[in-house]
Write a structure and sequence with these properties.
single chain; Helix Hairpins; Heat Shock Protein 90; five-stranded antiparallel β-sheet; 10 helices; about 50% helix; EC 2.7.13.3
Length: about 475
């Protein structure tokens, strides 16, 4: 057993997943940008405050030395009005001169390089006793004294604020994402309503309603091309179904006629005793009808192979003049009996084609011309070459074919004059077979008819 393939995701799920991924990425970067901006603002704010503290300490140390005062006596008054700020001053021998709290910042300076500038780029982050600090380490020189100054700010408030902000932003962005996804789902669901409407209309189309067409003006612009393509498909299906229906009726009629003839003749012959000659004539008549049926069935099988692409062409270079001459030899007796002349005009052109099939196509056209050419007239076969193709034309004088019949001449069992259907030999498949042969050679078959003559033209690529 073959495993069933995975069912593809619906359009709605695909769009919602894509929107979800896009929104998640965008909101993540928005959140990171906001948090980074707030944190950078705190760093700059702390850097400015630390710079003020260090300048105040430096000013105090300079003033104390000029006044011959002890630094420790004046440092206590150096900074005021700042909360959560710690600083301590040491001399060049690392002896503590002053600190404003019980927080020992000496360890912070052990692995921290001294900074000459006090800004956001030179500020450092420290962890001490479970608390986070942001500070700077500086060396000050006043006259002949050297000092080490460490200033730090407790940033627990900042980290707590950032944590709360991150949680709040997460909830807000999550809610925004869910609302956006809901809106996207509703938009996609609403946007697919025209497709659901088209599906309902398509479901109503049956073989008895192939004339129904979808209206491109009633659908969004994005679906118009699909509707137009669907209508074109319906046109082709309707034409094919109509031809198939006509073909079925025609073939039933074509097969019934010879069978009816044989049954009728046989019943008449069996109605009373007949002589051996009469029975022999009956058998000859039935044989003619059976041969006609056999040829019709063979032609239908050949056309079926052609329709399904089962023909294998044996292409080879062919001289058209030589091929036409061979066909003329075949029809010479019939033409003489019908008092019709055969003429060829054109250069000796070489084409790539299947010899058997090409002769079959030309034979069908020539036999058709012989049936409708009045006595005393001439059928002309001509060849003309273009840059990349050649055209073979079979022209015969006679009654013109009405213009309304020309588009249907290559249909199976089609005859322009229905009253002559039984008087004219053939199965009604000759022109259909000719067109199939030309199509197999990737050529073109056309017909023109006027008061002067009827012309069938085969256009093939040159070798």
């Amino acid at each position: 057993m073959h495993k069933a393939g995975k069912r593809p995701l619906s359009i709605t799920v695909r769009v919602v997943l894509f929107v979800a991924l896009t929104i998640s990425i965008c909101l993540f970067f928005v959140q990171q940008l906001l948090l980074s901006s707030v944190e950078h603002h705190f760093i700059e704010q702390d850097a400015d405050e630390l710079a003020v503290i260090l300048h105040a300490v430096e000013h105090t140390l300079t003033t104390a030395q000029d006044g011959q005062q002890q630094p420790a006596q004046t440092l206590a008054k150096a900074v005021s009005g700042h909360h959560g700020v710690y600083y301590q001053v040491m001399d060049s021998q690392n002896r503590l001169l002053y600190r404003n709290a019980d927080v020992d910042l000496s360890l912070l300076a052990a692995n921290t390089p001294a900074s000459a500038d006090y800004n956001a780029k030179t500020i450092h982050h420290w962890q001490l006793d479970g608390k986070a600090y942001r500070g700077v380490f500086s060396r000050l020189t006043t006259a002949d004294q050297h000092y080490k100054v460490i200033a730090a700010i407790d940033i627990s408030f900042h980290t707590h604020f950032l944590a709360q902000l991150q949680r709040s932003l997460g909830l807000i962005l999550l809610g925004s994402a869910l609302l956006t996804l809901l809106a996207a789902w509703l938009a996609v669901h609403q946007g697919l309503n025209p497709l659901r409407g088209l599906s309902e209309q398509m479901r109503d189309i049956q073989t008895s309603k192939l004339d129904i067409r979808l209206s491109p003006g009633e659908v969004p612009t994005e679906l118009r091309h699909m509707v137009q393509s669907f209508n074109l498909m319906l046109d082709r299906l309707e034409q094919g179904f109509t031809k198939l229906s006509h073909f079925s009726a025609d073939i039933a009629h074509e097969l019934r006629t010879p069978l009816t003839n044989m049954i009728t003749q046989t019943q008449v012959s069996l109605s009373r005793a007949r002589s051996a000659d009469e029975y022999q004539n009956l058998l000859f008549s039935n044989l003619e009808e059976l041969e006609r049926l056999n040829k019709m069935i063979s032609d239908m099988l050949w056309l079926a192979k052609s329709d399904n692409g089962l023909l294998t062409l044996q292409k080879q270079p062919l001289e058209l003049k030589q091929e036409v001459a061979a066909i003329f030899n075949f029809f010479e007796a019939w033409a003489a009996e019908s008092q019709v002349g055969l003429s060829y005009h054109g250069a000796n052109i070489i084409v790539q084609a299947d010899r058997t099939l090409l002769r079959h196509a030309l034979t069908n056209l020539l036999s058709n011309a012989l049936r409708y050419t009045p006595p005393g007239e001439t059928i002309t076969v001509s060849t003309t070459a273009a840059a990349d193709s050649t055209t073979i034309t079979v022209e015969n004088p006679g009654q013109p074919i009405p213009p309304q019949h020309l588009p249907f001449l290559f249909d199976r069992f089609y005859r322009a004059d229905a009253s002559r259907q039984r008087q004219i030999e053939g199965s009604g498949l000759g022109l259909a077979i000719t067109k199939a042969i030309v199509d197999a050679h990737q050529g073109q078959l056309s017909v023109e008819s006027d008061a002067r003559s009827t012309r069938f033209s085969i256009r093939l690529k040159l070798a």
